[in-house]
Write a structure and sequence with these properties.
Blueprint: H1 14-37, H2 41-46, H3 58-61, H4 69-87, H5 91-112, H6 123-140, H7 143-156, H8 172-200
Length: 202
């Protein structure tokens, strides 16, 4: 008897990817608790400070830090949900999307952000995930990728308002830089993977 409704097997590394996303989430919450007990000193000193040399290290750590528990909670669900959807394309894809959106959103903030401000949070990565998933279907043109893009559009399309400077205190520059980074990876994923395999030694 043909099993017409059998789900396709999960890609290699899916469970490891879920574990990594879980650890990332736990680390974010642990740092938020630690920041509370240090009088909110972590994010003040380790966030991204636009166009200041002392703010460059923030590019590497800002996605781990948040202003308060409400900020953490706002990023937690989309981080895990969108990250898990990217994982359906493989652990390597999740790693590349995360790394490039992490670095490019932070660099965009450092270059374009308003002086005298401090930027932090995983929102740039979240919008990078969103940009990748929304546009991968267009560039890949495969039925599963297009179906996933439509699903994500229905689920999180309203978040695109975060790309506009409509709300004070939201890093729309980081959102936009992350989204563009995700869109770039969606377009050039094959070339990026080829470059990575040829130059990383992994």
């Amino acid at each position: 008897m043909t099993d017409w409704f059998a789900l396709p097997p999960l890609p290699d590394g899916f469970r490891q990817g879920i574990t990594l996303l879980t650890y990332w989430l736990l680390l974010i919450w642990a740092l938020a608790i630690a920041d509370l007990f240090t009088g909110r000193q972590l994010w003040r000193h380790l966030g991204i400070r636009p166009r200041r040399l002392g703010g460059l290290p923030g590019i590497l750590v800002a996605p781990l830090l948040h202003q308060d528990f409400r900020h953490v909670a706002a990023n937690s669900a989309p981080l895990v949900i969108l990250g898990s959807l990217i994982l359906l394309q493989g652990l390597e894809v999740l790693g590349l999307v995360t790394a490039l959106c992490w670095l490019l959103s932070g660099l965009g903030i450092w270059i374009l952000g308003r002086r005298g401000t401090v930027h932090l949070g995983a929102s740039g990565v979240v919008f990078g995930y969103l940009g990748f998933l929304l546009l991968r279907g267009y560039f890949d043109r495969s039925l599963p990728a297009m179906a996933l893009s439509i699903f994500v559009g229905l689920l999180y399309g309203g978040a695109l308002w975060g790309l506009l400077p409509l709300q004070r205190g939201k890093s729309w520059v980081g959102h936009g830089a992350g989204f563009l980074a995700g869109a770039w990876v969606a377009r050039d994923l094959d070339a990026i993977q080829t470059w990575w395999m040829q130059n990383s030694g992994w």
